[in-house]
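Repro:
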Amino acid sequence: MIVFVRVDDRLIHGQVVLGWGRVLKPDRYVIIDDEVAETDWESELFMDAAPEGANVSILTVDEALKRFEEGIFDSERVFVLVKTPGTLLELVDKGFKVDKINIGGLHYSEGRERLTENIYLSEVDREALRELAKKGIKLEARALPESEKVVLNSMVI
C-alpha cells in the first residue's frame, strides 16, 4: 500500500528518513528514476541512506509500473520518491494511481523560479505540475510533517 508520494530532488535524505519516516513508518522506499536506476554507484548511495530495517527499491518508470500493477508491494507500507514532477506525470500518464502528491524540495538552480521557500520550478516542472493539477491530483508543498502545508494547485495553473 502506498502511504506517501513525494517529489524531492534529493530523494532519500534526513527530512525523508527522520521527518517523514518516523511519522509514516514505511517498510519500503521506492525511488522511481530512470537515471538513478541505471547508475550503480548512485543506487548504492541511496540504499545506504535508508534507515536500518527499511527496504529500498530503485526502479525505472516502467519497472515501477509493472511491480505496482503486479501487487508486489501490496503488503508493505510504501513511500514513493521521484526527483522531478515530470517523472510523476509520466507515471500518471501510464496508469499510476495517486490522488495527492507532496512536493518536498525542488531546489534552486539557474533558470528556476521561486514558487515557495523550498520549491523552485523550471518551466518544464511547472508544466508537469500544471498537468497533474488538471488531472485532479492535489499538490501539496510541505517539507516536514509539522510544517505548514501549502496547496499548490492554484499556484501552478
